[in-house]
Amino acid sequence: MNKITTTKLKEMKKSGRKITALTCYNFSIARIMKTADIDVVLVGDSLGMVELGYENTIPVTIDEMVHHTRAVKRARPEGLLVTDMPFLSYNVTKQKTLQAAGRLIKEAGAEAVKLEGGKPVADTIKLLVENNIPVMGHLGLTPQAVHKMGGYKVQGKEKSVAAKIVTDAKILEGAGVFAIVLEGIPSVLAREITKKVEVPTIGIGAGPDCDGQILVVNDMLGMNMGFQPKFVKRYAGLEEVILKAFKDYSKDIREGDFPSKIESY
Ligand code: KIV
């Protein structure tokens, strides 16, 4: 596989080749993703929930994003390495926004950042792009706005909200994003946006017609059994596999079957 860049993702949209994306938070999984030719490796702030045990993504800090991005980077991913800017690390002052994004790029090795929102973050996107930091947008169900949305609810079912999301997608494109994540919106709306913007759309819970798809890696591996929304396809059942391994290990120790008596070191 060749190194994936923001330019290549745009070419993939033009040629109709679907983009594969997954979240990733650590070295060992990043190594496997590299072998599997995943196009976009996102250190999502979902790490706060699936790896750090927070209730939502709000408490995630830049230090945590730097720490996990550095671990993923050590696997030298060939997929584009994108890192989420956590809640209120952007769209504050210009200086603070640039410092936060700069840490993700300079210190952690991310190749692009992702941030949530439409029109209100357009100037922030322009600022970052002008400073040579590629930006991925994120519209629809934006988890950092969980309190404002009143929960993790599908967005854009009403005509007026759907129209606003379409407008926001055009605004983000105009501000210079290289791709847009569309999360938790009706598939007809995702299809319309995908047709209307030239940059690739990457869907999660947004139907089949986006230019690519992303899932939270723990969800698709069956490592997050308390959370199983309809749109997640489970490609493995790691929680059961790991649980069995832990139980077998304890049993072996308790029954004297591990370590083996004949082995000596
Ligand atoms: O943080 C995350 O995992 C994300 C994806 C769901 C797109 O933003």
What does this structure look like?
This protein has 265 residues and is an alpha/beta fold. Strand 3, helix 5 (94-107) and strand 4 (112-114) form a beta-alpha-beta unit. The protein has helices spanning 6-15, 27-35, 47-50, 62-73, 94-107, 122-130, 146-149, 159-175, 187-196, 217-220, 238-254; strands at residues 19-23, 40-43, 80-84, 112-114, 135-140, 179-183, 201-204, 212-215. The chain is 42% helix and 14% strand. The protein has one domain (6-220): Phosphoenolpyruvate-binding domains (TIM Barrel, Alpha-Beta Barrel), CATH 3.20.20. The mean pLDDT is 96. The protein binds 3-methyl-2-oxobutanoic acid.
Produce the secondary structure layout.
Blueprint: H1 6-15, E1 19-23, H2 27-35, E2 40-43, H3 47-50, H4 62-73, E3 80-84, H5 94-107, E4 112-114, H6 122-130, E5 135-140, H7 146-149, H8 159-175, E6 179-183, H9 187-196, E7 201-204, E8 212-215, H10 217-220, H11 238-254
Parallel strand pairs: 1-2, 1-8, 2-3, 3-4, 4-5, 5-6, 6-7, 7-8
This protein binds 3-methyl-2-oxobutanoic acid.
3-methyl-2-oxobutanoic acid binds next to strand 6.
